[in-house]
Please model this.
Amino acid sequence: MTKIERIDAEILKAREKIAEQHAKIRTLEGQKNDEENALIVQMVRKMRLSPAELERFLDRHKNSLTNPTKTPPVFPAAQINPTNLSKKESEENPQ
Model:
């Protein structure tokens, strides 16, 4: 085997390792994305909002996400769902 052939073999080996690492990175990025999504779903479920309530909440806070200096509006007390509060209170204070 000539020196050039050995170098070519090393290049091929290095490219194979790089391809494996790229595949590993894609897999890890997918796992990270899945975990982030699961965390987001968990946080949303803790809020106990209906899909419509969640949509209104996000719409109201959209500007604060794009413009952090602007304060998000506060939910009026009339919009709080009392059934959600009673469920939350019963979980926090079991008797």
